[in-house]
TrEMBL record:
Listed name of the protein: Transferase family hexapeptide repeat protein
Molecular function terms from GO: acyl-[acyl-carrier-protein]-UDP-N-acetylglucosamine O-acyltransferase activity
Biological process per Gene Ontology, one example term: lipid biosynthetic process
Keyword field contains Hydrolase: no
Amino acid sequence: MGKNYVDIENDRGEMLRYRKHVNGRGLIANGAKVHASALVEAGAYVEPGVQIAAGAHVGRGVWIEPDAVIGPNAEIAPHAHIGSGAAIGGGAKIGVRTVVGRGALVATGSLIGDDETIADGERVATDRRGLRLAA
């Protein structure tokens, strides 16, 4: 039986330990809180301080930076990047290769398309079709 963790050196030369999430085998750093019912696919990285709620789905190759919050039943498509301190509301959908900046807020139920960029600190709300609503 193989080990259930991986040690990776960060940019400052510090060793960080990531455990493989039981539901999907994505890598979860020590200090991150991921609900057991969340799916974190292999190849995803969840940094320290991140919180992922029940029923959330984090796709392959997603990188979630420290202190971000992913709400219940949110869906983060493959290769998206969620910035430090960003918050994704419950039931929101983030598209493939989309970048959500530091401290950005995506409202509950919003639909963010593929290859989009949400600026640092931006607040975004959309309807079910992905059309942005006035803030």
